[in-house]
Amino acid sequence: MRLGCRRSPGPNGPAASCRRFVAFRTNGGDAAATYAAVMGKVFDGIDETLARWISAQPMWFVATAPLAGDGHVNVSPRGHDTFSVLGPHRVGWVDYTGSGVETIAHLRENGRICIMFASVDARPRIVRLHGHGTVLLPGDAGFDEVTALHPEHPSTRAVIVVDVQRVSDSCGFGVPVMTVVEERDLLRLSAEKRGPDGMRRYRAEKNATSLDGLPGL
């Protein structure tokens, strides 16, 4: 199932979302307590219902860290039509070129990763996927399997596949309600301006090593 698809405001607009949220909040403490009671669960895997919820989230976060105790922990936001559920215990995404390479470097060293989705609409929820990640480069087995699920993008540098070992959720009561306006297209525009050779030079300069000197690309 392909995830991370572009989402636009619903037919009833953001006001309807706000009304639903107000109704949820004003049902009183009993409603909040009832909702909280069903959260904080650990799941056997990613089923179809959870996969659909994940697909509705416009952004997610990726957390990794080096093995060294004094190394730099990293959290990166992700978006666009790049994320796929490949099975109940396997996910992957198309990794775009950026100014850093922390996720790739950390995964190559130790594989540890946590992916977090947080709902920003009327119904609060947080889902975390803990697992072991693998970096796939063009030509590696499995790279084409994931990229074929998503639109071609000139900034693509790798594919990350994660074998999910733990799936859990929590309430998300502290996350604000926000309206998604649109996705940014700056990565595409920048990559097209640089061209393939320029992107290779950029990655050679910016993506060779992590902040702690771990090998990147």
Approximate shape: globular
Indicate the CATH topology.
Answer: Pnp Oxidase, Chain A
Element order: H for helix, E for strand: HHEHEEEEHEEHEH
Task: List the total number of helices.
Answer: 6
Which whole number gives the mean pLDDT?
87
**Class in CATH?**
Mainly Beta
Number of strands: 8
- Sheet-strand content, in percent, reads 25-35%
Q: Write the CATH architecture name.
A: Roll
Terminus-to-terminus distance: 28 Å
The computed structural class is alpha+beta
> How much helix is in the residues?
25-40%
CATH superfamily membership: Electron Transport, Fmn-binding Protein, Chain A
Radius of gyration: 19 Å
Number of domains: 1
Low-confidence parts: 1-28
Largest sheet: 8 strands, antiparallel
Explain what the structure shows.
With 217 residues, the chain is of the alpha+beta class. The protein has one domain: Electron Transport, Fmn-binding Protein, Chain A (Pnp Oxidase, Chain A, Roll). The chain has helices at residues 13-25, 29-37, 48-55, 102-109, 143-147, 186-206, and strands spanning 42-43, 60-64, 74-78, 83-87, 90-96, 112-118, 126-136, 156-170. Strands 1, 2, 3, 4, 5, 6, 7 and 8 form an 8-stranded antiparallel sheet that branches. Strand 6 (112-118) and strand 7 (126-136) form a beta hairpin. The longest helix is centred in the last third of the chain and has 21 residues, at 186-206.
